[in-house]
Design a protein that fits this description.
By secondary structure, the protein is mainly α. The chain has a single domain, classed as Growth Hormone, Chain: A. The chain contains 17 helices and no strands. Helix 2 runs antiparallel to helix 7. The longest helix has 30 residues. The protein is globular, with a radius of gyration of 21 Å. The two termini are about 30 Å apart.
Length: about 425
């Protein structure tokens, strides 16, 4: 048993990295299921308070901005300490924000509770911490491992959004926020303490993918090895144009993605589609993204450069936007959701893979955190507000969907400008 634990990092014969994948999968499921339920709350809040959709969607924009800013710090922390403490703190803060959102009376209340508290908490249990932790445990199977962990985003959306739609329909939007907050608190803290307590394989006498180091420490050893660590400097990364091409591509893609996630339900309701069916379309995006994350994670382990997989994902998202422009029935809405969701599944699966491929896995938390900051600040925080503003201006979402289509066409070409990766460790 001791030999088996030394070799795998666990007493079960299974490499501990796969437990990290499971933890990251489940934690991202509760995080993103909670976040992507926001579209269910837009119209009920507008009807109760008389707020415009741009005012309400700004709550999501503030959350995404806070998420991006906090991601810089959580990424640096994830390169230095066990993720369990970061995730536990995030679950507590995010749950507090959701509980308080149920009590709001003014728009600024929404921006502080859901926006600031929710965003900071979500960053602590988001893709930066979870997927960078996964990426450190794998090299040869990194794409598959990150893809599997990222499926949690889609699984959480698939399950949580329809449930949130049901709770809001039966009990009101206030109970919807409170229920999601309880879900995040109980499950988030429990999972982080159980599965996310280890840092990287070298600290336990292992190498990525479960290979044992020569004379390595037992896998259960609590203390890191005393050998000098890798260079964690970010200066070469920030000076590299390749990094900024990745940032720009994903910023524009996330702008399109977030505007759809926030405004798809109200758009469907405006088209006289049933409320439950409208909410379920977000779940369909999550379902399709599960297949997309697995497919794109698997694909990038098998092609010479993952940028081609990224371009394919953006192109599929653009095709989904074409369908959305002509949506009049629930069937067409679900056709959009399935295609768009499959392409959207490439984002969280490939973004950390491209960074690890080009800049190394030891600083993946920091590089991913900085990338997510710009992606959220440029794309995530502005996408919902731009779509809401265009709706308020024109009385229709058509201009917003056309903008998304144009942006996705641009990034499909832009990502292909990346040079071949220099290293993959």
């Amino acid at each position: 048993m001791a030999d088996e634990e030394r070799r795998t990092g666990s007493g079960t014969g299974l490499f501990w990295g796969w437990y990290v994948v499971l933890g990251a999968f489940l934690i991202q499921a509760i995080n993103y299921g909670a976040r992507y339920s926001f579209g269910v709350f837009v119209k009920p809040m507008a009807e109760e308070y008389g707020w415009s959709r741009s005012v309400i969607s700004a709550g999501m924009s503030v959350m995404v901005l806070a998420y991006g800013i906090a991601g810089v710090f959580t990424g640096r922390l994830a390169d230095r300490i066990a993720p369990r403490w970061i995730i536990t703190a995030g679950a507590v803060v995010m749950a507090a924000g959701l509980f308080l959102t149920a009590l709001i009376r003014e728009p600024w209340h929404l921006y502080v509770t859901y926006g600031v508290l929710g965003g900071v908490g979500a960053a602590c249990l988001g893709v930066v911490v979870c997927n960078s932790s996964v990426g450190k445990w794998f090299a040869r199977r990194r794409g598959l491992a990150i893809g599997l962990a990222s499926i949690g985003v889609g699984a959480g959306t698939m399950v949580t959004v329809p449930l949130a739609g049901y709770v809001v329909k039966v009990h009101g939007w206030q109970w919807g926020f409170a229920a999601i907050g309880a879900f995040v608190l109980i499950i988030g803290v429990g999972l982080s303490q159980w599965l996310m307590g280890r840092t990287k394989p070298e600290d336990y006498g292992l190498l990525p993918d479960g290979k044992e180091t020569a004379g390595g420490n037992p896998a259960s050893a609590p203390a890191p090895t005393s050998a000098p660590g890798p260079d964690l400097s970010l200066r070469p990364v920030l000076a590299d144009p390749q990094f900024w091409i990745i940032v720009a591509s994903y910023s524009l893609a996330v702008l399109a993605e977030m505007s759809v996630m926030v405004h798809l339900v109200p758009y469907a309701l405006d088209r006289q589609i049933d409320r439950v069916a409208a909410a379920s379309s977000l779940g369909a995006i999550g379902t399709a993204s599960i297949l997309g994350r697995f497919f794109f994670g698997w694909l990038c382990d098998r092609i010479r450069d993952a940028k081609y997989a990224a371009a394919l994902g953006f192109l599929i998202m653009a095709a989904g936007m074409l369908i959305l422009l002509n949506t009049t029935t629930a069937a067409v809405l679900f056709a959009h959701a399935l295609l768009f969701g499959f392409g959207y599944g490439s984002i969280t699966a490939l973004s950390p893979f491209l960074l690890a491929d080009r800049f190394g896995r030891h600083i993946l938390g920091a590089t991913y955190g900085i990338q997510v900051f710009f992606v959220m600040a440029i794309g995530g925080s502005t996408g919902p507000m731009i779509a809401g503003y265009l709706y308020d201006l024109t009385g229709s979402y058509r201009s917003a969907w056309l903008l998304n289509l144009a942006l996705l066409a641009v990034v499909t070409s832009l990502i292909l400008v990346l040079k071949k990766p220099r290293r993959r460790i």
